[in-house]
Backbone:
């Protein structure tokens, strides 16, 4: 089945620094990848949609200059949290859609990255 | 924004069927219903999807009402490992096919 990986699985960084999270589709090509954020005991919140070779589109209220997304290839999207602050501490999850799959456009999710900003 | 409503939590005895309801009264004719589950601190796992007809796979069955305004996910023989948050999602149409997650149902399977 389709597999999506994320790296790292967890990261601790100091306030003011930047951290990059990678999302890879391992056995399929993904023209579209999605980034979600999940705070403790809450649901997943869609942050942005990442399309290969074009600029990401961000959901309302998500700062595009703080959460930089790059989708340079059909198998890799990265999320960079810039100038991280403790309130950015969260569980970040990516998902990908198979290029060749038609409806129902199922999304395959990665295992998530736990970010802690100290 | 999420287009679905689900009960906050449900309990189920191990070995019994778990029936998880979902309301999606504003669903459009070409929108699919998806079910995913999330076990603590993991990424969501796909369970099943449907459009109009009832569906069954190795994990679960999906019953969609004739008017498509609600659906029920059925885990036929729940085990302790099925304890998770279950999300019912109606995909937003358009080019990007986004998912907006609602609050989900926490299923507690008890021995």
Residues:
């Amino acid at each position: 089945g389709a597999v999506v990986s994320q790296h790292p699985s967890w990261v601790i960084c100091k306030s003011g620094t930047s951290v990059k999270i990678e999302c890879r589709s391992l056995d399929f090509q993904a023209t579209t990848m999605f980034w979600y954020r999940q705070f403790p005991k809450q649901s997943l919140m869609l942050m942005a949609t990442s399309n290969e070779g074009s600029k990401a589109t961000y959901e309302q209220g998500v700062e595009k200059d703080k959460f930089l997304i790059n989708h340079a290839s059909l198998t890799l999207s990265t999320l960079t949290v810039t100038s991280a602050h403790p309130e950015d501490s969260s569980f970040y999850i990516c998902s990908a859609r198979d290029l060749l799959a038609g409806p129902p456009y199922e999304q395959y999710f990665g295992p998530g990255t736990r970010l802690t900003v100290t | 924004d999420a287009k679905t409503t689900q009960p906050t939590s449900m309990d189920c005895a191990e070995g019994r069927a778990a029936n998880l309801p979902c309301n999606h009264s504003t669903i459009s004719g070409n929108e699919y219903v998806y079910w995913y589950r999330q076990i603590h601190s993991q990424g969501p796992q796909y369970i099943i999807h449907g459009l109009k007809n009832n569906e069954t796979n190795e994990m679960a069955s999906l019953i969609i009402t004739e008017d498509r305004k609600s659906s029920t996910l059925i885990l036929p023989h729940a085990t302790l490992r099925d304890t998770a948050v279950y999300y019912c999602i109606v995909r937003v149409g358009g080019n990007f096919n986004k998912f907006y997650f609602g609050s989900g149902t926490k299923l507690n399977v008890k021995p």
User: Anything to note?
Assistant: The mean pLDDT of chain A is 92. The interface with chain B takes residues 4, 6, 32, 34, 36, 43-46, 49, 51, 57, 91, 93, 95, 97, 103-112, 114 of chain A (CB under 8 Å).
